[in-house]
Automatic annotation (TrEMBL):
Binding residue positions for [4Fe-4S] cluster: 123-124, 206, 209
Organism ancestry: Bacteria, Bacillati, Actinomycetota, Actinomycetes, Kitasatosporales
Source organism: Streptomyces broussonetiae
Protein name stated in the entry: Adenosine 5'-phosphosulfate reductase
Record carries keyword Iron: yes
Entries under Gene3D superfamilies matching the protein: HUPs (3.40.50.620)
């Protein structure tokens, strides 16, 4: 494919995403994922932090055997790895675990120990952003569990949009859901969730950069606490 053909293909994909975002704004999460499965087939995947398996479960209903991509940063809680293993064992999905180019020990040797404390943006880039960029090659569309009610930075999340950085279609099927909607779906379908959600961690990330949330705090207050940082870089 020539450069001009690639650009036209990208423009067509962007237009498709923008139109779908308008057409599917009021659709159910399952309808959105069914559209993704029908449109992209094996070139569609779900990404999961294994905070819960709601989107993976929904996607497996639309597309049994769907690829579920998980980033193993080397810094996860044991409970998160356990949730991944349980999802792989009991759900009709194909879990793909991505790892950074360097182990934690190799990163410490090159950058010094505790990079997550000194430069969390660089640590996130090396252990999350770059591996995902590599892992999503070959797909045209990816689904996330982003919700508009989680934070101000996510308030305008489209149900289907264009990921300019990766030049892919980005699908957020539960963008319009609330935490109550998530809880109701988990209860109705017996969906696996990370045990840390019941232990004061309403948002679960890497162990060094995640703490329990205090009463009255925002659900994501435990992520990079005390810093201006609110996102790892995967979503913006």
């Amino acid at each position: 494919m020539t450069t001009a053909q690639e650009e036209r293909a990208t423009d067509d994909l962007r237009a498709l995403a923008e139109q779908a975002g308008r057409d599917l704004e009021d659709a159910s999460a399952l309808e959105i994922l069914q559209w993704a499965a029908d449109t992209f087939g094996k070139r569609f995947c779900v990404t999961s932090s294994m905070e819960d398996a709601v989107v993976a479960h929904l996607a497996s209903r639309a597309m049994p055997g769907v690829d579920v991509v998980f980033l193993d940063t080397g810094y996860h809680f044991e409970e998160t790895i356990g949730t991944r293993d349980a999802v792989e064992a009991v759900m009709d999905v194909n879990v793909i675990t991505l790892t950074p180019r360097q182990t934690v020990a190799e990163q410490d040797a090159e950058y010094g120990p505790g990079l997550h404390d000194r430069d969390p943006d660089l640590c996130c880039f090396l252990r999350k952003v770059k591996p995902l960029e590599e892992g999503l090659k070959g797909y045209q569309a990816w689904a996330t569990g982003l919700r508009r009610d989680e934070s101000e930075t996510r308030a305008n999340t489209p149900v289907v949009g264009w990921d300019e950085k990766r030049r892919m279609v980005k699908i957020s099927p539960i963008a319009r859901w609330t935490q109550d909607d998530v809880d109701a779906y988990v209860a109705e379908h017996g969906v696996l969730t990370n045990p840390l959600l019941m232990d004061g961690y309403p948002s679960v990330g890497c162990r060094p950069c995640t703490r329990r949330v205090l009463e009255g705090e925002d659900a994501r207050a435990g992520r990079w606490a005390g810093r201006a940082k609110t996102e790892c870089g995967l979503h913006g």
